[in-house]
């Protein structure tokens, strides 16, 4: 029995080796021709292989497209962030440019009139939304030498006066507030009057109590008269844009638009000391 098994195994081994050699012979790459069976199999599988190749190519291209979409989305996000950063820098640069321009004008004003009065720079830090042209809050107070009734100006012209003070802040009443009153006069004719805020709460003021027989005309410049002692003489206020008769018929009223842009106040100058009010020359208006 063992000998028969060994002969059987040897026979099977011999057959397998022979088949292997035949397969190697008929499938060798350097053969000039394929066997009929190989040719038939290749021909029958060719269409299927073509479809599979196209499907594989489509799948590969689709995968690459999806991956590229992810990259494009990430690149687009990065580009948007860079654009936002650059815009922010441009806005900051423009803001610094505008601030530098305003501060330069304030400094030039202080240098120009340092012989007439001394001033302190203050920033507007608050407004009443219901009374935009009435009272604003400044970031300087009594500890900075700010006192009640001190006049406030910008390089363009008169703004108002301080009406209340705390240690670190001050309330500034604008000349457009209806409660405001400023001794004023026409620069060209020296005719006096009183400048008051508009009851409509607009950016306009009115020159009132001007005698009817005096000459008022559009374009004339209104300056402070120095009467009353609060405001130094000669500070420009604004220009006349309209003239009308008062209801009593005894006086004229002129609408005056301030030189200072009270709608967009950011920094102002508080006049803390007037050296000689009588010698203060009228300043040129806009």
Give a written overview of the molecule.
The protein is of the alpha+beta class. The chain contains two helices and twelve strands, in the order H-H-E-E-E-E-E-E-E-E-E-E-E-E. The protein has helices at residues 2-26, 36-112; strands spanning 117-127, 135-138, 151-154, 157-165, 170-174, 181-186, 192-197, 205-211, 221-224, 236-245, 251-258, 267-274. The strands form two sheets. Strands 1-2-5-4-3-12 form a six-stranded antiparallel β-barrel. A six-stranded antiparallel beta barrel has the order 6-7-8-11-10-9. The protein is rod-shaped, with a radius of gyration of 46 Å.
For this entry, give a set of tags.
286 residues; alpha+beta; 2 helices; 12 strands; 29% strand
In short:
With 286 residues, the chain is of the alpha+beta class. The protein is built from 2 helices and 12 strands, in the order ααββββββββββββ. The protein folds into 2 domains: 32-112; 113-279, Rod shape-determining protein MreC, domain 1 (Thrombin, subunit H).
Task: Predict the CATH topology of the largest domain.
Answer: Thrombin, subunit H
Sheet of most strands: 6 strands, antiparallel, barrel
CATH architecture of the largest domain: Beta Barrel
If helices are DSSP runs of H or I spanning 4 or more residues, what is the number of helices? 2
General form: rod-shaped
Chain oligomer state: single chain
Question: In total, how many domains does the architecture comprise?
Answer: 2
**Main β-sheet, spatial strand arrangement:** 1-2-5-4-3-12
The CATH first-level class of the largest domain comes to: Mainly Beta
Helix content: 25-40%
